[in-house]
Amino acid sequence: QVPLVESGGGLVQSGGSLRLSCEAAGASLGYYAIVWIRQAPGKGREGISCIDYSGQSTYYENSVKGRFTISRDNTRNMVYLQMSDLKPEDTAVYYCNTWPLGAWGQGTQVTVSS
User: Fold this and answer.
1) What is the pLDDT of residues 9-63, one digit of tens each?
2) Strand pairing class (58-60; 45-51)
3) pLDDT at residue 3, as a whole number
């Protein structure tokens, strides 16, 4: 299992943007598909986006399609989630993980105010 560290969350107004980052501590992400998963207050975890190991294939859940963009830079061992046109319903703790799922990191909090 690859321990992942998420960063980039924060408080933003509705319509704003944030870029989340995901990096591995002491391991290479380049062998793994990576998923972004979020958990809103009082709700279960929801997979919202995925990227294959090469970066050539991506997936988006309908609620974020057209607003979020997943990307990766294997030379920097990083995966990103660019989030635009944020809405209050995007408020959640955001996690990255390998696919199949491995160890969970601490996540990064995203709060969108109306």
Assistant:
1) 999 999 999 999 999 877 888 889 999 999 999 999 999 999 999 999 999 999 9
2) antiparallel
3) 81
Q: What integer pLDDT is reported at residue 30 of this predicted model?
A: 87
Of residues 103, 114, 110, the one with CA closest to residue 25: 103
Kindly state the tokens that stand for 16. Answer: 């704003």
**Long-range pairs, 60-64, Cβ under 8 A, ≥24:** 63/89, 64/90
Written as six digits, the tokens of 5 are 């560290």
Residue type, 65: K
For residues 112 and 12, the answer to whether their CB atoms sit within 8 Å is yes
- The secondary structure of 76-99 as a DSSP string is TTEEEEEE-S--GGG-EEEEEEEE
For 109, the token pair is 């909090």
